[in-house]
Amino acid sequence: MNAMTDLVSSSSASTAPSPAATAPLVQVRGLRKHFGELEVLRGVDLDIAKSEVVCIIGPSGSGKSTLLRCLAALETYDAGEVLIEGQLLGYAERNGQRVRASQREINRVRRNVGMVFQQFNLWPHLSALDNVMEALLRVRKLPRDEAKQRANAMLETVGLAHKGDAKPAKLSGGQQQRVAIARALAMEPHIMLFDEPTSALDPELVGEVLQVMKQLARDGMTMAVVTHEMGFAAQVADKVMFIDEGRIAVQGKPRDVFHDARQPRLRQFLQNYFDRNAFWSREADEKNDVDERNAADGADA
Ligand SMILES: Nc1ncnc2c1ncn2[C@@H]1O[C@H](COP(=O)(O)OP(=O)(O)O)[C@@H](O)[C@H]1O
Ligand SMILES: [Mg+2]
Question: 179, 169 in Cβ contact below 8 A?
């Protein structure tokens, strides 16, 4: 996976040194968003430093996708600020008033933000290679052979160099998601946002996608990952954020969030995961039963 190392280092090397270079890559301050009556984000503050991996957990409907979509300018927001590499995303100040930025300006600021969705959103009529090339040709306006070379390198990065000619329907869900990751990486993002990237996959295909993401993290990619894969979060995250009802209710190192959860809503949320893995404790219970029986037998004898 050397191609990925090159990708990450070259994309950071191309960032001109500026005051923004030392600031967090993403800064969110007082972010609010509502859909009609429903306030979905109720004052979110967060920082993501360069090369940091942040995992976002929380119940369904708590605002996780909306938050990521705001970071990628796929959603407008009502109040607060989203700064990407020090630049305000989505809005501009004119005569002390906040106005919606032009699409051109929005595209410029979010240029370095890549996103991967739960549904892979590949073009069904295009090969894996063409799916990865598409935005390079259309958005980045790269010459065809350069686009093809980069797309091939990205497919190699996700372990799919041999599948370039395959249409999505011929690929497994895990492979399709890896193509979607290659497509995002091809745009040389400085940060990758993942919204439940493995939630649509059959359980046996989850690992191959997480593996690619782990490698990316090791290679220094800045990442924000909404996930229910607590094992991944525990292993890979620098920081875990628990979102509840549109607010970051708890954040900290994985160890503190997972093993020392005091906040009642977080405890309750995590309990569901512990319960799902309850067969381990059953094994332990059975062993205890045997031990107790043996002890009892010993006492009878
Ligand atoms: N485009 C939309 N229009 C109206 N309501 C929405 C829209 N998108 C999300 N919501 C609502 O906002 C809330 C938060 O959604 P979402 O950010 O998708 O939560 P999560 O990703 O944590 O499950 C939910 O109640 C959802 O129904
Ligand atoms: Mg969601």
Answer: no
Ligand nearest to the CA of 194: 2
The first and second tokens of residue 133, run together, are 């090339």
The pTM (predicted TM-score) of the whole model is: 0.87
How does pLDDT run across 22-36, given as a tens digit for each residue? 789 999 999 999 999
The answer to whether 251 and 56 have CB atoms below 8 angstroms apart is no
Q: pLDDT (tens digit, 9 = 90+) per residue, 159-182? A: 999 999 999 999 999 999 999 999
| pLDDT value at residue 283 | 60
> CA 217, 237, 120, 178 torsion: positive or negative?
positive
% helix, strand, coil for the chain, step of 5:
50, 25, 30
Under DSSP, the state recorded for 245 is T
HSE value, Cβ hemisphere, 13 Å, CA-based, for 252: 12
Residue 130, pLDDT above cutoff 70: yes
Q: Burial code of 202-234, b = ≥16 C-beta within 10 A, e = fewer?
A: eeebbebbbbbbebbbebbbbbbbbbebbebbb
| Separation of CA 250 and ligand 1 centre (Å) | 20
Neighbours of ion ligand 2 (CB under 5 A): 64-65
